[in-house]
């Protein structure tokens, strides 16, 4: 197990807290499955022209839930004192295993949602770029 992955696993056991603005505080913790919709919406707001955003909120909700359940990835949310998700971070220590894990364990639900969006050649090309991105990597990230 790599050091970054080990640190991420240890961090999931702790809830972090930091000031937001004024007297409000934000807590950082692992994402609950029910928060995947909020995370998907934040992604779409932050990257409106990205290929994942173009696949829609429903697809991204399933995707973030799958990543959070994988032993190869993590999703943390920043939650304001009122309980609203105000930010997130998603990551992995290695892209190939996370892609494999998501496809094997959650492929059918993702495929069902994906089929609605891949009817155009433009979208087929963009999805293919994302799927084959890990194979373009010649070495693992530090």
Primary descriptors:
142 residues, alpha+beta, disordered N terminus, globular, four-stranded antiparallel sheet, 4 strands
Detailed description of the structure:
The chain is of the alpha+beta class and 142 residues long. The protein has one domain. It has 7 helices and 4 strands. The protein has helices at 3-11, 36-46, 51-54, 57-69, 95-115, 121-131, 133-136, and strands at residues 16-19, 25-30, 73-80, 85-92. The chain has a 4-stranded antiparallel sheet, sandwiched between helices. Helix 2 (36-46) crosses helix 4 (57-69). The longest helix is centred in the last third of the chain and has 21 residues, at 95-115. It is globular.
Q: Give the % helix.
A: 40-55%
Low-confidence spans: pLDDT under 50, at least 5 residues? 1-14
Largest sheet: spatial strand order: 1-2-3-4
Largest sheet: 4 strands, antiparallel
Q: What integer value in Å does the Rg equal?
A: 16 Å
- List the secondary-structure elements in sequence, H or E: HEEHHHEEHHH
**Oligomeric organization of the protein chains:** single chain
Please state the overall shape, judged from the principal axes of the Cα atoms: globular
Number of helices: 7
Task: Note the beta-strand portion.
Answer: 15-25%
> Count of DSSP E strands?
4
Distance between the termini: 13 Å
Derived from helix and strand composition plus strand pairing, the structural class reads: alpha+beta
Domain unit count: 1
Mean pLDDT: 78
What's a quick, concise take on this entry?
The protein has 142 residues and is of the alpha+beta class. The protein is 51% helix and 18% strand.
């Amino acid at each position: 197990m790599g050091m970054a992955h080990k640190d991420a696993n240890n961090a999931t056991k702790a809830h972090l807290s930091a000031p937001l603005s004024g007297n409000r505080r934000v807590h950082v913790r692992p994402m609950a499955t029910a928060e995947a919709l909020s995370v998907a919406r934040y992604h779409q707001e932050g990257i409106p022209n990205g290929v994942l955003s173009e696949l829609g909120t429903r697809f991204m909700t399933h995707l973030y839930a799958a990543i959070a359940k994988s032993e190869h990835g993590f999703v943390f949310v920043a939650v304001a004192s009122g309980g609203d998700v105000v930010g997130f971070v998603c990551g992995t220590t290695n892209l190939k295993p996370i892609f494999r894990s998501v496809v094997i364990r959650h492929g059918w639900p993702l495929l069902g949602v994906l089929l609605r969006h891949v009817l155009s050649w433009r979208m087929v090309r963009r999805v293919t770029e994302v799927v084959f991105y890990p194979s373009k990597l010649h070495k693992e990230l530090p």
